[in-house]
Amino acid sequence: MKINIYKSIYNFQETNTNFLENLESLNDDNYELLNDKELVSDSNELKLISKVYIRKKDKKLLDWQLLIKNVYLDTEEDDNLFSESGHHFDAILFLKEDTTLQNNVYIIPFGQAYHDINNLIDYDFGIDFAERAIKNEDIVNKNVNFFQQNRLKEIVNYRRNSVDYVRPS
Prior knowledge:
Elements (H helix, E strand, L loop, with lengths): L5 E2 L4 H14 L5 E10 L6 E12 L4 H10 L3 H4 L7 E11 L7 E6 L14 H9 L36
Antiparallel strand pairs: 1-5, 2-3, 3-4, 4-5
């Protein structure tokens, strides 16, 4: 299983509060606190405080699936190809080391939940971690791209026989 781990820009309480306030502002009250638990390693050296939020969504057909189903599928057996029964689940796991020294909160989204944590995460965490974990002589190229909501939009028109400029006669 592949997971993505993010670091929160807030402490544990603020992370949970901001997450819930963001859901409230989006009128998305589908996340429920499944459990909050203290996790302890076998050697008792590491203690983590965790909270898991889960969202259950009814399975819906995508537009392209509806198109194929309505246009190309004729039999009952074909209808079962794109079944609408069942559910999708999204989950978000918040983790914090249970010490007074560390205030770092880590977030692990599952399913499509990564959309719901954008306002909580430190975008530089991954590259900062890689810089510390990888030797400098092993780094060939570093690149960070951000796609923000404010994008530069430009339309360029070119017409070959335009009369916008003076032509010799």
